[in-house]
Amino acid sequence: MVIAPKIRGFICLTAHPKGCEKSVLNQIEYTQSKGPIEGPKKVLIIGASTGFGMASRITSAFGSNAATIGVFFEKPPQDGKTASPGWYNTAAFQDQAKKAGIYAKSINGDAFSDDIKNKTIALIKADLGKVDLVIYSLASPVRLHPKTGILHRSVLKPIGTALTNKTVDFHSGVVTNISVDACTEDDITNTIAVMGGEDWEMWIDALLKADALENNATVLAYSYIGPVLTEAVYRNGTIGRAKDDLESTAFKISDKLKHIHGQAFVSVNKALVTQASSALPVIPLYISLLYKTMKQKGTHEGCIEQIQRLFRDRVFSGNTLLTDEKGRIRVDDWELEAEVQSEVAKSWALTSTENLAELGDLEGYRSDFLNLFGFGFSGVDYLEDVNENIPIDGLQ
């Protein structure tokens, strides 16, 4: 079938297998161009099919020649219907790992569930024995709690008072003011249940109980803070409460890892275009202005550049790992440079529909959004009739 993007709001309903393959190949090429990293050798990535999770898997496998097991929840293809992009990303990754002689297997299912945890641990024990790095990079709007059976839904709202601020429809480029009602206490509770640290801790508890973690194992989760401009809807909102919970969980996990001399950290990463960020008010406009500023300074990074820097210069550099006052690794440092934020704030005050193309990088935002689904890559013939039914080699 000939596959074109079908966009509804902040979601694209189709994905292109050749484009997703090109995305993975580009990330592998970047990783290999930077040379080897003396990093992990047996890695579990929870949330492994897109974004920072896929970048972590690629960096582990093609930067450190590590065996990887990836866990994710993706929609497989059907005749006449494409898979979700993470399915095609994983299919491409598995093919390249096989060609390179690198162990890689994948599990598709609800990572919040006990069944998937048990299945994953059984695979680790059978094939790898133990893992030395666990990446937790889940991004889901809902969580069915495995113990209570309650279905929790996260919301993206401010706390305390309603928010009114600028935003942009990144499809049309129209800048408007938007108002978002304040959340309820139940909204906060549910968002923490979905996006906080409880499930991360459950994974580590299960791995420890099964003796599936190597001595000196490292455990990483990903977070975001952001600038003053976005704090009302993000860091001071419901999602910020969930991130606070995730970050405090790192200390609980580190205590549990002491007997194997392991440590848990949260890495605070840079703002990037994702399906989640596209759904947030204010954030698309901020990212558009940020991209313009950071590209002009030569400091812009995508997922693969961020994770490569995190692995090479921070976690596996061989030097003392520097963290902030709350024990977090900071690779959002270039985003939050005073000069960068000053320029973004100046542009924010002036931005309108008429001058956004001049002050921001809306085209870069749109391009990155389409790239998430395998569209917009050079070297891919999007008029070609392609097979949508791509299997994942190594899927358990």
Quick summary:
The protein has 396 residues and is an alpha/beta fold. 42% of the residues lie in helices and 16% in strands. The longest helix is centred in the middle third of the chain and has 20 residues, at 238-257.
Description:
The protein is built from 13 helices and 13 strands. By secondary structure, it is an alpha/beta fold. The protein has a single domain, classed as NAD(P)-binding Rossmann-like Domain (Rossmann fold, 3-Layer(aba) Sandwich). The strands form four sheets. The protein has a seven-stranded parallel beta sheet, with helices on both faces. Strands 1-2 form a two-stranded antiparallel ribbon. The longest helix has 20 residues. The radius of gyration is 20 Å and the shape is globular.
User: How many domains make up the 3D coordinates?
Assistant: 1
Instruction: Quickly give the CATH architecture.
Output: 3-Layer(aba) Sandwich
**Rounded mean pLDDT score:** 96
**CATH class descriptor:** Alpha Beta
Instruction: Report strand %.
Output: 15-25%
Helix percent reads 40-55%
Helix and strand arrangement:
Elements: E1 7-8, E2 11-12, H1 17-33, E3 42-46, H2 51-64, E4 67-72, H3 85-100, E5 104-108, H4 114-128, E6 131-136, E7 142-144, E8 151-153, E9 163-169, E10 174-180, H5 185-195, H6 198-209, E11 213-223, H7 238-257, E12 263-268, H8 275-279, H9 283-297, H10 303-315, E13 329-330, H11 338-350, H12 356-359, H13 362-372
Parallel strand pairs: 3-4, 3-6, 4-5, 6-11, 11-12, 12-13
Antiparallel strand pairs: 1-2, 7-8, 9-10
Helix pairs in contact: 1-2, 1-3, 2-3, 2-10, 5-7, 6-7, 9-11, 9-13
